[in-house]
Design brief:
By secondary structure, the protein is an alpha+beta fold. It is built from 11 helices and 8 strands. It folds into 2 domains: about 80 residues, Arc Repressor Mutant, subunit A (Orthogonal Bundle), CATH 1.10.10.10; about 180 residues, GAF domain (Beta-Lactamase, 2-Layer Sandwich), CATH 3.30.450.
């Protein structure tokens, strides 16, 4: 084999390995947004665009590693408990739910409405926490840990408004088919992103429900990039709109306090690191 042939073969192996990793993560993300009952092989393969034998091989490997398991008494796949333990350390490094918890309680107490906390994850939006208000059915499908295409909902749109242009365009392009499947027009998403950028928040009817209206505000890091969104969810009624007008200052204050708390923790962590390292060295 010539040197060129060896280089070409090595390159193909690298591409194949990279593709396998990407496909594996696509399956893991899909299962992360699925119900406890899990997903059938045929649905997993179709959703991520893989041939059934390829999807089966990847699932078998993930199952062998304890990342995926079969739902009891069925052939449906779901994430295994191992994934929760893998996520403990990263979760502690980004403790947005811990700092948001009291603010979510207070917003629900003040308004009587349901409150959601969402965070971005690749091209998805994940429900990180929630509080039920006087009409809990309005967020009955917003289970903690469940995923939606980023930009499909109002919280996702307000987060996209405060991300860099490259990520916005990538997200909209990669989610285009999923938006279409949900009956959502990308032009409407872009319009809401622009409005959120202009106002600093977004109030709009829930595109996924005929019953609810949402007020969303971003939680930002020190650079102004969105790391989450707080959403107030109420009925489509004049009364809810009036509550939004009164509650916006509280929403802004909550988002600011959460951002400040996260930044303060990171600063303390950096300041603490040298002494910890000195202690370990001694």
């Amino acid at each position: 084999m010539t040197i060129q042939e060896k280089i070409t073969t090595a390159g193909r192996r690298e591409i194949t390995g990279t593709q396998c990793i990407r496909r594996s993560f696509a399956i893991v993300r899909l299962l992360a947004g699925s119900s406890e009952e899990g997903e059938k092989l045929v649905d997993i393969a179709n959703e991520v665009g893989l041939a059934h034998p390829t999807a089966h091989r990847i699932l078998k490997a993930l199952e062998d590693e304890g990342i995926v398991e079969r739902a009891l008494g069925s052939q449906r796949y779901r994430l295994a408990a191992e994934t929760a333990w893998l996520g403990v350390a990263p979760f502690n490094r980004c403790p947005i739910t811990r700092y948001a918890s009291a603010h979510l309680d207070e917003l629900t107490r003040i308004t009587g409405d349901s409150v959601l906390l969402s965070v971005p994850s690749h091209i998805d939006s994940v429900y990180a926490d929630r509080r039920f208000g006087n009409i809990p059915t309005l967020i009955r499908h917003a289970d903690i840990g469940s995923r939606r295409p980023l930009g499909l909902g109002i919280g996702g749109r307000v987060m996209l408004a405060f991300m860099n242009a490259g990520r916005v365009e990538t997200t909209l392009a990669e989610n285009a088919a999923r938006y279409a499947q949900a009956g959502v027009d990308v032009a409407d998403i872009r319009a809401d992103i622009e409005e959120a950028r202009s106002l600093g928040y977004l109030v709009a009817n829930n595109p996924l429900s005929r019953e609810s209206r949402i007020a969303a505000i971003p939680v930002k890091d020190i650079t102004g990039r969105a790391i989450g969104a707080i959403c107030l969810v109420g009925p489509r009624s004049p009364g809810f709109q009036q509550r939004i007008d009164r509650t916006l200052p509280h929403l802004r204050a909550a988002a600011r306090d959460i951002s400040d708390a996260i930044q303060q923790q990171r600063l303390l962590g950096r300041n603490r690191l040298p002494s910890e390292m000195d202690h370990l060295a001694s």
